[in-house]
Amino acid sequence: MKKNFAMKKLYYSISEVSRIIELEQYVLRYWETEFEMLRPAKNLAGNRVYTNKDIKLILYIKKLLREEKYTIEGAKQHLKTYYQKEEAENIKLNQSKETAAFRTGSEMSLFEPPSGGHSDHEMVTKNPKLKDDLIQLRTFLTNLLKDIS
Fold first, then answer.
1. pLDDT tens per residue, the chain (149 residues)?
2. Across-strand partners of 4?
3. What is the reported pTM?
4. CA–CA separation, 113 vs 117, rounded Å?
5. Residue ranges of the domains in the chain?
6. What Cα–Cα distance (Å) separates residue 51 from each residue in 4, 78, 105, 113, 126?
7. Which of 12, 73, 85, 144 is most buried, most CB within 10 Å of its CB?
8. DSSP string, 17-85
């Protein structure tokens, strides 16, 4: 069966993923119980919805188990190590971006208005959610100060 990756979607059903990956649906469900990083979201009807990231992970798990002959426990350990290395690299990348922003002075200051000419009042009035969040924060801080004194 030829794999058709031409169909690009945000979410795929378990039957679509089963066809793409060439695995039975029960295998996908079983792997969800074994691999903690494989947790597809569910829609309002309770059906699994897989993202492209989920499909890539399933393909990798399939490769580890079927081609490289890992046991499930071995594949779990391999994935855990892989994700730890990836997370460490992401942290280093973010730290280097933050350092570069600090050196160039392009970080946003808490004491200066953001670039773009919008005042705080304009930002709050154009965003009702922000206004609600700020009111909740003010209420929380007021109550906290009352509790302290």
1. 455 555 578 899 999 999 999 999 999 999 999 999 999 999 999 999 999 999 999 999 999 999 999 999 999 999 988 877 777 777 777 776 666 655 555 444 444 455 555 555 565 566 777 777 777 888 877 777 777 76
2. none
3. 0.56
4. 8
5. 14-87, 117-149
6. 15, 22, 37, 38, 33
7. 12
8. HHHHHT--HHHHHHHHHH-TT---EE-TTS-EEB-HHHHHHHHHHHIIIIIS---HHHHHHHHHHHHHH
* Residue type for position 43: N
Task: Tell me the CATH number for domain 14-87.
Answer: 1.10.1660.10
Determine phi and psi for 49, rounding to 5 degrees.
Answer: -130, 120
Residue type (1 letter), 7: M
> Would you say 125 and 131 are in contact if contact means Cβ atoms under 8 Å apart?
yes
Query: Distances in Å between the alpha carbon of 2 and those of 21, 37, 89?
Result: 10, 27, 35
As given in the structure block, the two tokens for residue 124 are: 């709050």
